[in-house]
Amino acid sequence: MTAEVAPPAPQPALTAAIELVNAARWYGNVVAVNDVSFALGPGVTGLLGPNGAGKTTLLHMLAGFLAPSAGTVRVLGRSPHRDPSVYRQIGLVPEREAVYSFLSGFEYVRFNARLQGLADSDAAARRAISLVGLDDAADRAIGTYSKGMRQRAKVAGALVHDPQVLLLDEPFNGMDPRQRLAMMDLLVQMADAGRTILFSSHILEEVERVGTEILVMVSGRLAASGDFRAIRALMTDRPHTISIRSSDDRRLATALMADPAVFAVELKDGSLAVQTAHLSTFRRLVAGVSRAAGVRLVEVVPADESLESVFDYLVRR
Amino acid sequence: MRGSAVSSFVAVREISGVTLRQLLGRRRTILLVLLSLVPVLLATAFRASGEVDILRFTRIVFDGLYVAILLPLVAVLFGTGAFGAEIEDGTIIYLLAKPIPRAAVVLAKAASAATVAILLTVVSAGLSGVIELLPAGSDGEAATFAYIAAMALGSICYVALFLALSLFTRRALVIGIGYMLIWEGGLSSLLPGIANLSIRQYALGVADAFFQLHNDPARLSPGTAVTLAAILVVVALVVASWRLMRFELPGSSD
Q: What is the DSSP string of A50-77?
């Protein structure tokens, strides 16, 4: 991913590239997005929330695929709904994995370029492919791609026309850590070039690296918005539960209880449920304690690290 | 780098190319090709028996197999599949998120599906006619040509109607088969007034321009059949474009 991101085409002065005012969307009796208001300018913003929080619905409203049931949604100063011309300035990476599997990566990106009316679609496609680091696989059918490569092809297709606004729904799904970092850097680079980028995620660490500004959605509502570090700070003192499987759970439980960072240990369903105040401290601690106790760790996973529990905690505060 | 406007011609060409590859790459298409060979085999059997009876052959093979079964089945499957599969797997989002007129998307999809349906039905009907009816001289040629025209017109009508329907319901294929069996197979044969609303009768009507079918004239004159077919196609494509503009993506419950 060495190619440079070009500066965007000059835009009329706008107060916000994306603006929602009391926007809501419901399906029958089910409220997917409820009274959400925010405005975003150039930069990367993470849309964070657990599955079912309303992130995709919100992104689809911004992309013009869903009309708000109430309130207003504006992108670059106009309603995106039923206005195909708005897609000249919007790039969209949907969450669903399906891409035209019979096309090669290059053909797919060029298809997008041609439907965007780009004069030199081949050059634009090559440039976008290069930006996402897919050069070596560009001539292979997308059907042979890994999930991460497919994601990158989707991103290349979405940014081939240098959109002013980029909407990405769970863009890092399926990418390995190296690809993830490279894609995050690309988003930051694009934002630095003046674009407005909104991406959704249910993984805290993804947002932490890319977006300093975040929007947190819980159950269709905007539960928090602002600087990630401030919101992250609110989370640090909450209790975490870690699920551990090891070669000797009982011995490990005894060893862990001796450490003041551990609140409680419970043996259940063939694993240990450990409560701690500081996740990062505990991660360092558990390796040493298990080694000292002569216990082999099989699995260490945060049991409550779902955003649902994290943000339920935030909302309760 | 950007052109002044996305030409509808470019959009239709690009989307048609992708849609043709989609439709031709499906297992369903291979099955339909095999199915289209069944009447050809039957024509070969007729030919092997040494019998050349234009009226009997058209009644059994052209009317009974092509017009009643193969044509609607092939055209309804391609018509509903042109958008159906993309709606199902979500790839339609790549077409909708483009600055192109929705009518261009509909036109490209309809043209691709109709092309494949026409190719399949016309080649099959043409082969059957050549095998069995060419020895019958000019009448045989006329009958073959009549049913080739019927296949082409019928394919376009079925594709347009069921492509539009597929944008309203995911059950378009079931409705299409119901329409084919109940409406056209039963009611339109029994109630002459329904002929005005039957694609099968439009197809038979246009065939009548080339060859007097059977001893009884078709229920619709060729002129009426073509006019009604044109109205149906235009209305279906306009409705489909209208619907696509208002199309809301399924699976947006998150």
A: -TTSSHHHHHHHHTTSS--SEEEEEETT
Name the phi and psi angles at A21, rounded to 5. Answer: -125, 110
Name the minimum distance, in Å, from the CA of B158 to any CA of chain A.
26
Residues from chain A that touch B99, judged by Cβ atoms under 8 A, are: 84-88, 115-117
What average pLDDT does this structure show over A86-114? 94
CA distance A195 to A165: 6
pTM of this structure? 0.82
- Residue A191's pLDDT is 92
Tell me the chain B residues in contact with residue A55 when contact means C-beta distances shorter than 8 Å: 254
Residue A170: alpha-carbon gap to chain centroid: 4
Contact of B26 with chain A, judged by CB distance below 8 Å, is answered with no
Q: How confident is the model at residue A12 (pLDDT cuts 50, 70, 90)?
A: very low
pLDDT of B247 higher than 80: yes
Q: For chain B, what is the largest distance between any 2 Cα atoms, rounded to a whole number of angstroms?
A: 67
CB-CB contact of B84 with B172 (8 Å): yes
Query: Which 8-state DSSP code applies to residue B221?
Result: -
So what's the pLDDT on residue B216?
Answer: 59
Question: Is the pLDDT assigned to residue A11 strictly greater than 50?
Answer: no
Asked if B98 lies within 8 A of A112 by C-beta distance, the reply is: yes
Q: Is the model's pLDDT at A2 over the cut of 50?
A: no
Count of beta carbons in the 10 Å neighbourhood of residue A60: 25
In chain B, DSSP finds a helix count (H) and a strand count (E) of: 11, 0
Tell me the C-alpha distance between B101 and B90, whole Å: 19
B196 Cβ neighbours under 8 A, 6+ residues apart: B220, B228
- Residue A84 touches partner B, C-beta closer than 8 Å: yes
Of A185-189, A229-233, B63-67, the one with minimum mean pLDDT is A229-233
Helix (H, G, I), strand (E, B) or coil at B41: helix
| Pairing, β A271-276 against β A240-246 | antiparallel
Q: What's the token pair of residue A44?
A: 């990367």
> Over the stretch A245-288, which tens digit does the pLDDT of each residue have?
899 999 999 999 888 888 889 887 788 888 887 777 787 888 88
Q: Residue B1 has what pLDDT?
A: 44
Q: Is B253 or B53 the better-scoring residue by pLDDT?
A: B53
DSSP lists the bridge partners of residue A165 as: A90, A196
Phi, psi at B59, each rounded to 5°:
-65, -45
Residue B238 identity (one-letter amino acid):
V
Q: Contacts of residue B4 in chain A, CB cutoff 8 Å?
A: 117
Mean pLDDT of chain A: 86
Integer-rounded Cα Rg, in Å, for chain B is 19
- When scoring B9, B87, B252, B253 by the number of chain A Cβ atoms within 10 A, the one with the most, hence best to mutate, is B252
Smallest CA–CA separation between B161 and chain A, in Å?
Answer: 23
Nearest to A117 by CA among B60, B100, B12: B100
Q: How many Cβ atoms sit within 10 Å of the Cβ of residue B126?
A: 16
A292 close contact with B: CB closer than 8 A: no
